Amino acid sequence: MKALLPGTIVNGQPATLGVMGGGQLGRMFVHAAQAMGYSTAVLDPDAASPAGLVSHHHILTDYLDEQGLQQLSACCAAVTTEFENVPAPALRTLAAQCPVAPGADAVAIAQDRAAEKTHFVRCGVPVAPHAVIETPDQMAAVTGDLLPGILKTARMGYDGKGQIRVKSRSELVAAWDQLKNVPCVLEKMLPLKAECSVIVARGADGQMVNFPVQLNLHCEGILAVTRVYEGAVPADLAAQAVAATRAIAEGLNYVGVLCVEFFILEGGQLVVNEMAPRPHNSGHYTLNACDQSQFELQVRTLAGLPLTQPRQHSSAIMLNLLGDLWPLDSAPAWDKVLALPGTHLHLYGKLSARPGRKMGHLNITGATPEAVRATALQAAALLGIEAF
Ligand code: ATP
Ligand code: MG
User: Fold this and answer.
1) Ligand 1 centroid to 160 CA: how many Å?
2) Bridge partners of residue 133, in order along the sequence
3) Which residues line ligand 1 (CB under 6 A)?
4) Nearest atom of ligand 1 to the alpha carbon of 163
5) pLDDT mean over 342-371
6) pLDDT of 370-387, one tens digit each?
7) What is the whole-number distance in angstroms between the Cα of residue 221 and the centre of ligand 1?
8) Of all atoms in ligand 1, which is nearest to the CA of residue 162?
9) Which tens digits make up the pLDDT trace of 123-164?
10) How far apart (Å, rounded) are the C-alpha atoms in residues 114 and 157?
11) Domains of the chain with bracketed CATH
């Protein structure tokens, strides 16, 4: 693909980059694209979507709406996605009209836990012991060594939704009923020491760069804290995780930003969990702690611009800001939080705070791991974030 140089004028306005989905990831993509002089277009059915609110164009239709897709491809020089459950057929429709990255095939694999695991194994990366359950026969054939386990819907899960923990066969059967017998994957419950993730960006020419390994803490299935600094993840495991992520992206012939999440087991082994074909919540620290953010790299891969290895210049901790933190009819004590050195507040412009809803994140940067930890501890105490 020929590069779409920033500043190119198309039909009387700066060339437009489009994004399927109007959530916070789309909003940060839009900000990054606009910083480089591109116009932006968002397709999302919600008039108050975080990305739609800040974009030049907002197409208010469903993801599969033929007219909406037609409108998007007509105004865009290239289109990306911010949300992994954008139907792959919608991306195929768009791809017939304009460049789309990541491609529908890669997104379709990432949307299906069973296909995703098959791909990981093909790339030589260990996965959790598991069984695909799509039929009563497959359910009957499940062996006891997968219990206790977690039954996960094969498709459409996020933030721990569509998952049920089961200890016995009877619980497993009841859980599958509760999930309406849709195709599922049963995963053995593994003893986790920690969780980490790696984000890579890969261009259409095969050039690939990566961010450092992120150490992630989840609470109730939702990411709560990400730490990225020297020593957060042991160097040998970090090297393994980066190599595995690169192999996974290479194997998909992936174009765009890809995040791969891993488990670090009690025994120190690395096991891949899942991938997201887009920027990821665990990469939000890159906005303030790296010389290029994951969203800038998303813009570069989409526009066919060169990629250079990003450099982390500060130790970083990201605290996710969930709706739980919002007092009724007011806002958290941002004035006190922002009085701490190295705090960077990102709010997504959502109008109502609900428990578990991602409202924003707080990035904390510092010269040393000790400094950033001390500030994060203070910020978490001010906000009432217990996870830290
Ligand atoms: P998200 O979209 O936020 O990444 P998700 O809904 O796709 O979440 P998973 O990543 O599969 O869900 O699981 C959520 C969390 O549950 C994991 O981060 C981990 O803490 C825990 N978990 C998932 N699978 C296992 C497992 N096999 N063994 C132990 N813990 C697990
Ligand atoms: Mg996950």
Assistant:
1) 6
2) 184
3) 128, 150, 152, 157-161, 163, 187, 189-190, 192, 195, 218, 221, 223, 261, 273-274
4) 6
5) 96
6) 999 999 999 999 999 987
7) 6
8) 6
9) 999 999 999 999 999 999 999 999 999 999 999 877 667 899
10) 13
11) 9-100 (3.40.50.20), 129-188 (3.30.1490.20), 192-383 (3.30.470.20)
Which residue type occupies 255?
V
Whether 71 and 20 have beta carbons less than 8 Å apart is answered as no
Q: What is the DSSP string of 228-266?
A: ESTTSS-HHHHHHHHHHHHHHHHHHT--EEEEEEEEEET
Q: What is the pTM of this model?
A: 0.97
pLDDT in tens, 309-349: 999 999 999 999 999 999 887 899 999 999 999 999 999 99
Average pLDDT of the residues in 221-249: 97
Q: Do residues 264 and 193 lie in contact, with contact meaning Cβ atoms separated by under 8 Å? A: yes
Match 């998007």 to its residue by tokens: 72
If you take atom 12 of ligand 1, which residue's CA is the nearest one?
Answer: 160
